[in-house]
Amino acid sequence: MSDTESELRQRVRGLLGDLFGGERFAGLPDSGSLREAGLPSTGLVSLLVAMEDAFGFEWDDDVEPEVMRSIDSLARHVLALRN
Q1: Is 66 helix (H, G, I), strand (E, B) or coil?
Q2: What is the pTM of this model?
Q3: pLDDT digits over 5-46, tens only?
Q4: Cα–Cα distance between 22 and 56 in angstroms, integer?
Q5: How many CB atoms within 10 Å of residue 51?
Q6: C-beta separation of 79 from 8 below 8 A
Q7: Which of 4, 38, 46, 75 has the most CB atoms around it within 10 Å of its CB?
Q8: pLDDT beyond 60 at 1
């Protein structure tokens, strides 16, 4: 059974917590900018690698930067890959 978008958002949020501590992004809305919330580019790379491992896919080189903006956009991307 595949995850819903809501479940995917929770899983992405869980990966953020695992990588950077549970409190660092706890107050960030799902639609909030990860960059504006303080996620550095090296942190984004770590998150993207963790997502590959967790969700079983590899990022394409031509993914639009907007996909990596927020928890919402990351979850929607994973959901689109599964459909």
Answers
A1: helix
A2: 0.92
A3: 999 999 999 999 999 997 888 899 999 999 999 999 999 999
A4: 23
A5: 21
A6: yes
A7: 75
A8: no
